[in-house]
Amino acid sequence: MYSSRIGVLNIFIISLVLIYFTGCANRTVGVDSSKKSFDGEDRMILEALDTLESKDYNSSRIIFEELYDKTKKPEYKKESIALLIKLGDVDSAIEQSKEYLQNHENIQIGRLMIGAMIQKGDFENALKEMHKILKTNRSEENLELIASIYFGLEDYGMSIKYLESAYGVNNSKRILDRLVNTIYLFSDRKNDAISYLESHIRIYGCDRMLCEKLTRIYNEEKRYDQLLETYKKLYRVHKDEIYAKNIVEIYLSLYKIDDAIEFLKNESINDRMLLDIYRVTEDFENSKKIAKQLYKETNDKNYLAQEAIYEYELASAKGAIDDTILSLVVNKLERALEGIENDVYQNFLGYILIDHDIDYKKGLKFVREALKINPQSAYYLDSLAWGYYKLRMCQKAKETMQLVVDKIGFEEEEVREHWELIKECK
């Protein structure tokens, strides 16, 4: 469920990781090698990076600290402190940060110190230090950081306030994602969370991440009309059939079958979905047309078999089954089963051959093949019993039909009819 708080709590942890290694992503950022402080500086930088690559963090930290002692370049102090945090020595990281900041101004080191305080659970002091930074620098990342601190203090109102400010800087979708999560899960302002997403999407377009977030909220709030419209936006922008499938499923859950069909037709989306709807609604005429078209396009014999089944069902519904229809249906099913093995098609063909007195033995052959695949099917056993009955193999027919009755009882009208006839077989 979207309302699970685990995801939002993890956001706080992730933000801390970002804080710790703000200066670690690019190890040589800010270090101008053309202005070396001593001849071995480049060599020591490479050594520090090599030990870092091999995850020898302590050795790397020692080299960066030595580089700082020799050059007084703040970049090296920042890397050294970041590695102390990585090593879990947050007390030393805080102490060294404070010593440095007594005589220098450096926002990145200040942020590292705050990150160390947060890791230690000292949110109060982290908050004090963060407010000092915000007096001179209200950047997006600093506003996000203080929001994280308030989140850690479970002051969700203040966390939301600063996330709103952070979002206002660049309208970042990443910040918006955090803001919406916090508002929706930790306040009574759910409509504001929705409004933020709707406004951003209206102005900047249907970003996949944000639009999908909005669909989850709409679904949870049971706003199905808006849910449908958002999935339509996602489909129009990204042309991903999963969104079309979601749209169809929503229409069907709302019993708006005609709307689902109209949507699929208008968007010219995969006919297989349209076939599924026609099949569920027992629209055999359109099912037959789509199956025939799909067979022509794909040469997939499953569609040939389905075309045959729908042709039979359509004729049966109209009371128009004759020798011509039966010949066409049997021929198509036999052609389909030359290339595929499918118990449903095998049983269907077998039952037709038996029930319409075309070829009992051949019909039983197909039914037995179906039962090899699904030996527990009551419907296949019913076909088998009916074949035995037609061949006047009465004892086998009765024994097999008893298995069917034991499995599903007499709820099916056809089962009831077969039972009444078979039990009188002599």
In words, what does this structure look like?
With 426 residues, this protein is mainly α. Among the domains are: 1-137, Tetratricopeptide repeat domain (Serine Threonine Protein Phosphatase 5, Tetratricopeptide repeat), CATH 1.25.40.10; 359-426, Serine Threonine Protein Phosphatase 5, Tetratricopeptide repeat (Alpha Horseshoe). The chain is 77% helix and 0% strand. Helix 5 (90-103) packs antiparallel against helix 6, helix 11 (190-204) runs antiparallel to helix 12 and helix 13 (224-238) packs antiparallel against helix 14. The radius of gyration is 35 Å and the shape is elongated. The two termini are 61 Å apart. The relative contact order is 0.04.
* Measured distance between first and last alpha carbons: 61 Å
Radius of gyration: 35 Å
Mean model confidence by pLDDT: 90
Quaternary: single chain
- So, the CATH homologous superfamily of one domain? Tetratricopeptide repeat domain
Helical fraction equals over 70%
- The helix/strand order is HHHHHHHHHHHHHHHHHHHHHHHH
Return the CATH class of one domain. Mainly Alpha
Quick gist of this model?
With 426 residues, the chain is an all-alpha fold. It is built from 24 helices and no strands.
Question: Can you lay out the helices and strands and say which pair or pack?
Answer:
Blueprint: H1 6-20, H2 41-53, H3 57-71, H4 74-86, H5 90-103, H6 107-120, H7 123-136, H8 140-152, H9 156-170, H10 173-186, H11 190-204, H12 208-220, H13 224-238, H14 241-253, H15 257-267, H16 271-280, H17 284-298, H18 301-318, H19 323-337, H20 343-355, H21 360-373, H22 378-390, H23 394-408, H24 413-422
Helix pairs in contact: 1-6, 1-8, 2-3, 3-4, 4-5, 4-6, 5-6, 6-7, 7-8, 8-9, 9-10, 10-11, 11-12, 12-13, 13-14, 14-15, 15-16, 16-17, 17-18, 18-19, 19-20, 20-21, 20-22, 21-22, 22-23, 23-24
